[in-house]
Write a structure and sequence with these properties.
Helix content is 38%, strand content 29%. The chain has 130 residues and is of the alpha+beta class. It has a five-stranded mixed β-sheet, covered by helices on one side. Strand 4 and strand 5 form a beta hairpin. Helix 1 packs parallel to helix 2 and helix 2 runs antiparallel to helix 4. The model has no long low-confidence stretch (mean pLDDT 92).
């Protein structure tokens, strides 16, 4: 109801765990609202990525960054957790990861995963607003 920026900021605040997980949220260029369906899909992607951080990463620090530059939107979720073998995503895709893929495809966007065992994880989604 209040837009993607506010919804993501509230969600990050909700997930933050005082003693174990610090989530830092940043937004740039989000003064103007995105189309409603785009906001909902982007929020659902971020929600799934953050749930994966909480459930699987063992991270103590997470950065969520939402950036709009003209018609280009970039969402990055980065953590200092245990990381994983990125190639394993192709072999063992869970429902959450398949949902992320289908939503990124719906936005006609790109998905970049940078991770390695013991090195944390950074996932970036980029798409153009029609």
């Amino acid at each position: 109801r209040f837009g993607l920026k506010d919804a993501l900021e509230d969600y990050c605040d909700h997930l933050r765990q005082a003693d174990t997980l610090d989530i830092h949220f940043q937004a740039f260029g989000m003064e103007e609202r995105l189309p409603q369906e785009t906001e909902v899909v982007t929020f659902r992607i971020a929600q799934e990525l953050l749930n994966n951080v909480v459930r699987h990463s063992g991270a103590t620090q997470t950065l969520v960054q939402l950036l709009r530059d003209g018609n280009r939107v970039t969402l990055t979720v980065e953590d200092n957790g245990k990381g994983f073998d990125a190639e394993s995503l192709e072999r063992v895709q869970g429902v959450g990861w398949m949902n992320i893929h289908s939503r990124v495809n719906y936005l006609d966007g790109t998905l970049d995963v940078r991770t390695a065992p013991g090195k944390g994880c950074s996932i970036t989604i980029e798409y153009e607003i029609a």
